């Protein structure tokens, strides 16, 4: 079996009889086995994937656009009759009773789901260190974290353990681990992909996102999973373009950047220099590159953490051990209040508890107006501000993260430092716009990959993907 280059190349090999889905699955299972120490996979569906591969091989024509494509799913995405736990003890032993719409669509298109991958508990985190299954290692440097919360999804693609993977992005959880692992991470527009079957963290921010090695692969997965869904009323009715076939070549774009972001004190100077250099190259290639003053940067992380913890405190109230999930062995001896307390105190991890407490605090009477209402106002101002920018520009260019992947444990004792590192990613979720992280650079000192982030106006994924494709020599990434 040749190394995976792209879905199109692989499907040609299938058609030409150079490989089979079954041989490919077997190859991936071996690789997963050989990389177990990275701790990316929580569960591998070996027998099931091989059987499905055989069924696909027996078909006389491809089942769909993702025929034979090997996919890993973050442990927050429901897959009927398979365990799903949000990497939390509180969902220990829980089996999904239906599949997420995105999963249904992957399967209808012929994909093979090879396993369920690790993440931060309830997708809260930036390092994948907050998981009941333990931390995930970055395959580029095993002393470093892969990023989070979708760390397992990123490492699965980085280390060649799946061809593509799905994660979720509430504040950067697809783009930041993609950046730290040297692959592509796309967060679609809010409402582009159904959230049905995605375990909620903060419902007005959450989107399922895609990890891949090439832009055509990213585009193909997006066109399969995107689009209207009767099970999620927040999904847009806008038709889904055939992104992969519609990728445009040679267009010129208007790119805005925020000098405040590139000069920010938290940003690694080598990352800043690489981005400035890249902007210069784009200008030389005929795009317009314009500095735009943006003075809201320091408000966006606090706004994000007020609003998402508020939503999380409400979303996570359903986990109480009554109908499903973890129940403390001592809970039966308690009155109702004590029953909830025991289950929730033992079932949730530290970071999740911190956020539930914070969320309840910002929603509590006396503090609601001071925090929650204020944060909602900032969200509105930010959205209006970006709308104005997108009247004049196609993209906003930002770093994806202020540094390369941290060392394991480096920020574990300092949640605030960890939160501040979300400075460049949370804006897209606060305003619902699509954003992508492109793996363009290697850090000269740390020898670690990092990317550049591009954001576009809502539902402008096609231009985002087209521009990205022209900047990543497809098929030459690895
Ligand atoms: N790092 C962010 C957080 O901890 C992002 C999480 C996410 O996108 N799921 O909230």
Task: List bound small molecules.
Answer: glutamine
- Report the structural category: alpha/beta
Tell me, briefly, the overall form.
globular
Low-confidence stretches: none
Query: Going across the major beta sheet, what is the strand order?
Result: 1-3-2-4-6-5-10-11-9-7-8
Strand content: 5-15%
What is the assigned CATH homologous superfamily of one domain? Amidase signature (AS) domain
Looking at the structure, the CATH topology of one domain is Amidase signature (AS) enzymes
Portion of residues within helices = 25-40%
Chain-averaged pLDDT: 96
What's the short story on this structure?
With 478 residues, this protein is α/β, with parallel strands linked by helices. 39% of the residues lie in helices and 13% in strands.
Which descriptors would you attach to this protein?
Amidase signature (AS) enzymes, binds glutamine, alpha/beta, 478 residues, 13% strand
How would you describe what is shown here?
- The protein is an alpha/beta fold.
- It has a domain of 247 residues: Alpha-Beta Complex (Amidase signature (AS) enzymes).
- It contains 17 helices and eleven strands.
- The protein has an eleven-stranded mixed beta sheet with strand order 1-3-2-4-6-5-10-11-9-7-8, with helices on both faces.
- Strand 2, helix 4 and strand 3 form a beta-alpha-beta unit.
- Helix 2 packs antiparallel against helix 3.
- The chain is globular.
- Bound molecules: glutamine.
- The site of glutamine (GLN) has 14 residues, from strand 4.
- The site of glutamine has 14 residues, from strand 4.
């Amino acid at each position: 079996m040749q190394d995976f280059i792209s879905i199109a190349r692989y499907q040609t090999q299938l058609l030409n009889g150079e490989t089979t889905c079954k041989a490919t699955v077997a190859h991936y299972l071996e690789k997963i086995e050989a990389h177990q120490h990275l701790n990316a996979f929580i569960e591998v569906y070996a027998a099931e994937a091989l059987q499905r591969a055989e069924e696909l091989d027996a078909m006389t024509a491809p089942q769909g656009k993702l025929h034979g494509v090997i996919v890993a799913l973050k442990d927050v995405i429901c897959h009927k009759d398979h365990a799903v736990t949000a990497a939390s003890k509180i969902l220990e032993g829980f089996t999904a009773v239906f599949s997420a719409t995105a999963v249904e669509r992957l399967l209808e298109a012929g994909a093979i789901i090879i396993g369920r991958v690790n993440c931060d508990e309830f997708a809260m985190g930036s390092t994948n260190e907050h998981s009941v299954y333990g931390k995930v290692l970055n395959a580029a440097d095993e002393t470093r974290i892969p990023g989070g919360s979708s760390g397992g999804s990123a490492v699965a693609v980085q280390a060649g353990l799946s061809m593509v993977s799905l994660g979720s992005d509430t504040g950067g959880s697809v783009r930041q681990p993609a950046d730290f692992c040297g692959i592509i991470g796309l967060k679609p527009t809010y409402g582009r992909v159904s959230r049905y079957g995605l375990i909620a963290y903060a419902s007005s921010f959450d989107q399922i996102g895609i990890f891949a090695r090439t832009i055509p692969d990213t585009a193909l997965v997006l066109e399969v999973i995107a689009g209207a869904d009767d099970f999620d009323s927040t999904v847009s009715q806008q038709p889904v373009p055939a992104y992969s076939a519609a990728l445009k070549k040679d267009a010129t774009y208007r790119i805005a950047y925020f000098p405040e972001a590139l000069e920010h004190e938290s940003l690694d100077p080598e990352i800043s220099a690489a981005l400035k250099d890249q902007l210069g190259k784009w200008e030389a290639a005929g795009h317009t590159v314009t500095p735009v003053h943006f003075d809201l940067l320091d408000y966006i992380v606090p706004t994000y953490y007020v609003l998402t913890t508020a939503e999380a405190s409400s979303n996570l109230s359903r986990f109480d051990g009554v109908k499903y999930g973890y129940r403390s062995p001592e809970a039966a001896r308690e009155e109702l209040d004590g029953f909830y307390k025991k289950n929730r105190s033992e079932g949730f991890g530290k970071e999740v508890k911190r956020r539930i407490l914070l969320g309840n605090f910002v929603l509590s009477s006396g503090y609601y107006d001071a925090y929650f209402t204020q944060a909602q106002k900032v969200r509105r101002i930010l959205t209006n501000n970006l709308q104005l920018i997108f009247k004049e520009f196609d993209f906003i260019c930002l770093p994806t993260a202020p540094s390369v992947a941290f060392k394991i444990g480096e920020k574990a004792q300092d949640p605030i430092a960890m939160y501040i590192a979300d400075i460049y990613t949370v804006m897209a979720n606060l305003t619902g716009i699509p954003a992508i992280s492109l793996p363009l650079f290697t850090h000269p000192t740390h020898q670690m990959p990092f990317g550049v982030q591009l954001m576009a106006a809502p539902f402008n994924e096609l231009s985002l993907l087209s521009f990205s494709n022209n900047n990543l020599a497809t098929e030459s990434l690895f």
